[in-house]
Design brief:
- It contains 8 helices and 8 strands.
- By secondary structure, it is of the alpha+beta class.
- It has a domain at about 5-115: Jelly Rolls (Sandwich).
- A hairpin with a 2-residue loop joins β4 (about 50-60) and β5 (about 60-70).
- The model has no long low-confidence stretch (mean pLDDT about 90).
- InterPro entries: cNMP-bd_dom, cNMP-bd_dom_sf, RmlC-like_jellyroll.
């Protein structure tokens, strides 16, 4: 589960190399469903190239909950760990190149890594980083207006604005595409006064 952190922890490189042969590298078009909501996750996904989103169906309305890009990894963690139905769908936004590592090999990798000195600290650092990110998103969704959340994307993660289609960004912000257009116009007008 730590393949996307391999650059940060070079001492673990032999493990990445050892498990490369078990990863399936595939090229998929945009709008390819990698995991369907309600199905059990059996693969860990690493993004070599492209953009992926996690989304759920809320009474017939598609809601984007997260975006993933190059050198990031993902799965439906609860589903993956507990063999429960995934709460969300994982789908490509762009044509993508991904690696899939089946759960059986993820478990073997984790068992091997657990003997590595400092591994617990690495795991804690990885999960703390992810947890902080999700808490920030959660608090922002409650506290900030859609306009503030869009401004946060512009300031902190402009690659999302540049690469993700507007209807997915609107869904992520919890607004309609029309409302998103208004937000963008208002911000553009505000910036033109400087």
């Amino acid at each position: 589960m730590l393949f996307h952190f391999k650059d940060k922890f070079p001492q673990l490189a032999p493990y990445w190399d050892k498990y490369l042969e078990f990863q399936k590298r595939i090229e998929v078009p945009a709008k390819t469903v990698l995991l369907e909501e309600g199905k059990i996750s059996g693969q860990y996904i690493f993004v070599e190239k492209g953009c992926i989103r996690a989304a759920l169906n809320n009474n017939g309305v598609d809601k984007t909950i997260q975006f993933f890009f190059e050198k990031e990894g993902l799965t439906s963690l609860q589903s993956f760990l507990k063999n429960t139905p995934s709460l969300f769908t994982i789908e490509t936004i762009e044509p993508s190149i991904i690696y899939l590592l089946p759960k059986v090999y993820v478990n073997k990798l984790m068992a091997e890594l657990s003997g590595e000195p400092g591994f617990l600290n690495i795991i804690l650092a990885v999960f703390a980083e992810r947890q902080l990110h999700y808490m920030h998103e959660f608090v922002s969704f409650i506290r900030d207006t859609p306009e503030q959340r869009y401004q946060n994307l512009l300031n902190e993660r402009p690659h999302i604005i540049q690469r993700v289609p507007q209807h997915y960004i609107a869904s992520y912000l919890g607004v309609t595409t029309v409302h998103l257009s208004r937000i963008k116009s208002k911000i553009a007008k505000g910036q033109s006064h400087f």
